[in-house]
Structures are given as C-alpha cells and as structure tokens.
Amino acid sequence: MEEILVYGHRNPDSDAICTSIAYANLRNILKNNERAVAVRIGELNEETKYALEYFGVDNIPYVDNVAGKKIIMIDHNERTQTANGFEEAKVLELIDHHRIANFVTAEPLKARVEPYGCTSTIVCEMYMEKNIVPSKKMAGMMLSAIISDTLLFKSPTCTQNDIKACEYLASIAEVDLNKYGMDMLKAGTNLSKKTLKEILNMDMKIFELAKGRFGIAQINTVNEKEPLEKKEEYLKEISAMIEELKLDGFMFVITNILTNNSVAIVSGEKVDVIEKAFSKSNDSIIELPGVVSRKKQIVPPLTNA
Amino acid sequence: MEEILVYGHRNPDSDAICTSIAYANLRNILKNNERAVAVRIGELNEETKYALEYFGVDNIPYVDNVAGKKIIMIDHNERTQTANGFEEAKVLELIDHHRIANFVTAEPLKARVEPYGCTSTIVCEMYMEKNIVPSKKMAGMMLSAIISDTLLFKSPTCTQNDIKACEYLASIAEVDLNKYGMDMLKAGTNLSKKTLKEILNMDMKIFELAKGRFGIAQINTVNEKEPLEKKEEYLKEISAMIEELKLDGFMFVITNILTNNSVAIVSGEKVDVIEKAFSKSNDSIIELPGVVSRKKQIVPPLTNA
Fold first, then answer.
1. Which of A10, A155, A194, B173 is the most exposed place for a label (fewest CB within 10 A)?
2. Does any CB of chain B come closer than 8 Å to the CB of residue A104?
3. What InterPro entries does the annotation carry (chains A, B) (predicted)?
4. Mean pLDDT score of chain A
C-alpha cells in the first residue's frame, strides 16, 4: 500500500505535530488504497509531549528527508521551513494557515488554506464536512493544537472558527478547556532540561524578507525575568546562529502567557530594520506590549519596515 | 459597501470569466457587508461570448490595475498571469486548479486549490457545501467553464468531480450537454474577425521554467489546415512577440476539438528544449498526437526537458 508522509514544519510545535496526526487519521478513514503516515522533521517540544501523553497518543517517527516521497504539508509552505529533499518529493496536499511564499510545485495539488488561528481548525472542519466524528484521541490532538496556536484564544490570530471548533472538540475529548489549556501551555514553559541553543531552536523560523533574512524564535513563559537574566549568554548563541544560518537579523521573542505581553532580545547587522518595525532597542531588548503572535504582530511590521 | 474584485488570468478563457462570475455570485449570497464584483483583465474570446449570450449573462467590466484593491484570484496564481498592481493588492482568496508557483502573499489568505479539470468544479462544490442551488444562469456559467477546460470531458485533466458537477449543473441549466458543448466549443473556433496577433494572444500564457521563459499559446479548431497555411505569417508575429516579451521559446498549439490531436508551430532561441520535450520539429512544426491539455501534456514535459 502506498505510503504518504504527512508532516508539519521544522522545529515543530503542537500545531505541526498534532494536526499531522489528526489529518493522517482522517485521510486513512476516507481512502482505502493509500496509507497516510504522520511524521515529524524535528524534535517534540515539552508542550506537545504533554498533549500526546495526556491523550495517550504515541510519538510519531522522525524523517530526515522526503525525496522521492508523496507528501502532505501541514502548517507551513515556505521552503525554508520544510523538509530536506522537498524538490524531489511530490506534493499531494497543503493544509495551512500562513501566507504563501517561496512555495513551488511542479504539478497541480490540493490546497486548503484558511486565515484561521490554527491548522487543526481546518482539519476539524474537514472531519465535519465528511460527517466523521473524531475519536477522543484525535479530538484531543486538534484541541491541543488550537489552544497552543491561539494561546487559549488570547492571540489576535484567533477566529470564531477556532473557538467553535475547539469547543466542539472539547466536548468529545471530555476536557475542561481552561484547565487543560493552561496546564498544557505551562508544560511548554518548562525549559529546565534544555540548553540555550535548544531553547532558541524550539520554535525558530527563518523569513526571507525584502530587507534580508531574519530568524525569529519564540518561547512561552510564565516569568520572562528568567530568560532575560541570561541575556548575555543568549546573545552569544544568537551570534553563532546568525553566522551559521547567514541571517541579517534575529529576534528572540519571549511571550508571557499569563500577561500576554512579549519582550524580545534582538541582534544582527540589520537590527535597525527590527527597530524601525517596533521601537528602539535598549541594551538589545525591545519591549513588545500586547504582542503574542509572530505571524500577525511581528512578521507584518518587519515585512513593511 | 466594500468592493472586492474577483478575476481570472490574462487572456481570459471561459474558466477565468465564467468562474469569476459564478463565484462572485456565491460570495454575495453568503456575505452581506461586502460586494464581490467579477471583473476581467483581458478581452472575451468567441467561446466565452457565446456562453454569456446563450445564458443571458452580461459581460463584466475590464480592469487594468488592481493596486490598492482587495482581490480574489480565480484560475491562476503565477505572477506572469495576473493583473498589474498585484503587489499593491490584498489577496483575500485564491481558487485555482493549477500548480502553485511565483505566488507570494504578504498575509494569510483563504486558498482552495484542487487538481480538477476546471475551477468551476471547485466553485460548484462550494455551492453544494453551502446548500445553495445555483440559478440557471450561474449553472450555465459553471458548466460552460467545465466544458471549455475539459474539452467536453475529453481532456486528460478531466476528473470524476468535473463530470459529476457538470451533469448536476446541466440539469439545472436545462441544456443537452453534448449539443450545447459542441456548439460552444465550435463558436470558439471562429477566428474570422481576429488578426493573427490577436489569435496568438487569445490564450497565451508565459511560463518561467528552469530552462528559460516560454510562451505557450493554444487555440481550438475544427480544421488545423487553415492556421497551418498561414504558418509563415504566424512565425513573423511570433518573432515579434518573442522579442517584446523577452521569451526564450514559443509554442503555438493548435488543437482539433473533433479529433483531439494537436499540432504546434514552434520558434525561439531555445526551440531545442521544446524538441527535447516532444519531438524534432519539421519546418517549425511539431505534431502532438493525442495532446489537448497544455497543463498536463505540454508544461510538464517542457519543465522536465
């Protein structure tokens, strides 16, 4: 039986992992002569581990290269965020909620892109359209992704569709959204086992903008003082990443999930572009009050700067 | 009320025009506080004129530039095929059945892409999902687009979804698919009022491929001898277009809708790439037996050559 790889972006977050699991499940229910397999192209973060463990879902296999494979891309489309070997893969489908850029296919494909807060909301709607009620485990995967991407509906990226889907899924998964959501988000702020380099790479994406190539890393926390105390050590790691990845600028965005404010450690040759987009940095720090969404509140100002 | 422009590609065919009309109609039924307006960025061809006249649908306005507008793109996504001012427009939606390439948006959008034979099949499915029965006129628009793009189901691009949608639409529009279809396709072969330059531009698309920039024009006919008799004059016009549009190669594909074979007049500095993809040209002519689809039978071999 033909195998189709379903995967989310590099440095996968809960949307990338949990939505891949839920969509592979749906596709396998709908199609008999193919087998969709959810895989990942990076390590699980603590938040996603919590979600998988809570709902008793197994981790998914790591894949290094997708050359020669049929693929379904979840929660990303830009070349810098996808798997090695992408050019030699056949893209069957794309399910995403980001802008489209640096994405080229050789042939027509199926694409379902919506400006929602989370890709799982699209997949939940696909279950509904096909009149398939997701299992408790799959409902748990999708609601975890939605909570993660919308920061429990607090992010400006959150839409009515996300809230509606998440409430529907919570009724199937039999969880209290607020309690489970805060527990899961807090689990994601546990960085005690990680090196600074690992923390910077947990959710780092590269954006090719008109003004240059920018790396933007983001972490959630319940206390931004802790990472800020290690600023000098982070800046050293960031310098190494800038050189290794040939970046023109870097933002390390630390988001407090209790206050919904962020603060960024910034660096790089084109830090002036970042300052133009937000505000003057003070000792490599920019305050970002009310900012929680990279996609909606950081990338657009940086693109326009 | 905010105006949203809905438009298909340059050198519009029946899919580009009729699907824009049918989708603007659907969106206006679904959304109260916006007004979707179907527009075109080129002249109607004879086939599309026949369809509009048959179903009593008015021609749609011509728009030269979409800068500053909110837009919905139909039946195309590549930059070379879209409107002037695209970079300064806000892309709300994309509905398409082509590969994705040279398409960049600043923000997340809604995209619905399916590997179907025709974009109207996607729109027809959207009507069905929303439980809205299209009017006779709108059904006529969509079935005309499907007949046109699939050459009455003869093209290898045609899927079961296209056939199913078209039969459903024919029952609403109260037409005999075969009779109406052949009449409409034949109307499109009437080129008597057009100059050779106009004929070459009727359905010409530019493709940026690894090996260069190729123009591929296609016309339908019931008798390929007529255009072939004017080969030398066509070659002169093609040379001018190659220079004007900075092309590396050009194929003028003449498709017989009765026999479902094509023949191409080829020219340009990189005609060797075209020959590698198909066969050696004989006096600037390449026979293409069984070829009717540019998307499925011409662009992929040329991309791989």
1. A194
2. yes
3. DDH_dom, DHH_sf, DHHA2, DHHA2_dom_sf
4. 95
Please state, in angstroms and rounded to a whole number, the distance separating the CA atoms of residues A294 and A99. 12
Low-confidence ranges of chain B (pLDDT < 70): none
Amino acid of residue A51:
A
Mean pLDDT of A230-247: 97
Domain A2-187 belongs to what architecture? Alpha-Beta Complex (3.90)
The tokens describing B235, both together, are 């070659």
The number of residues making up chain B comes to: 305
pTM confidence score: 0.88
The DSSP secondary-structure symbol of B223 reads: -
Which residues in chain A have their CB less than 8 angstroms from residue B112's CB?
111-113
Whether chain A has a CB inside 8 Å of the CB on B210: the answer is no
Please give the CATH topology (third level) of the domain spanning A196-304: Diaminopimelate Epimerase; Chain A, domain 1 (3.10.310)
pLDDT of residue A3: 95
Residue B66: phi and psi, rounded to 5, are -105, 10
What confidence tier does A243 reach under pLDDT thresholds 50, 70, 90? very high
- For B:61-100, CB contacts with A below 8 A are 94, 97-100
CB of B113 within 8 A of CB of A91? no
Cα of A129 to nearest chain B Cα, Å: 8
What's the average model confidence in pLDDT over A117-135? 97
Query: Does A112 contact B108 at a Cβ distance shorter than 8 Å?
Result: no
Query: A290 vs chain B: nearest CA distance in angstroms?
Result: 20
* B243 interfaces chain A, CB cutoff of 8 Å: no
- What is A42-87 written as a DSSP string? SPPPHHHHHHHHHTTPPP--B-SB-TT-EEEEES---GGGS-BTGG
pLDDT digits (tens, 9 = 90+) for A69-109: 999 999 999 998 999 999 999 999 999 999 999 899 988 99
Is B114 in CB contact (< 8 Å) with chain A? yes
Strand partners, B252: B217, B265
d(CA B249, CA B241) in angstroms, rounded, equals 10
Q: Say if B212 is an interface residue toward chain A (CB within 8 Å).
A: no
- The predicted structure's pLDDT at residue B304: 85
Confidence at residue A295, expressed as pLDDT on a 0 to 100 scale: 86
* Residue whose tokens read 């594909």: B253
Residue spans of the domains in chain B: they are 2-187, 196-304
d(CA A55, CA A42): 21
pLDDT, one tens digit per residue, over A252-280 is 999 999 999 999 999 999 999 999 999 99
Query: CA A21 to CA A12: how far, in whole Å?
Result: 13
A109 interfacial to chain B (CB closer than 8 Å): yes
Q: Do B115 and A102 touch (CB under 8 A)?
A: no
Cβ contact, residue pair B100, A109, below 8 Å: yes
Q: How many CB pairs under 8 A join A and B?
A: 73
Cβ(B54)–Cβ(B77) below 8 Å: no
| Model pLDDT for residues B226-273, shown as the tens digit of each residue | 999 999 999 999 999 999 999 999 999 999 999 999 999 999 999 999
Give the number of other CB atoms < 10 A from CB of residue B67: 12
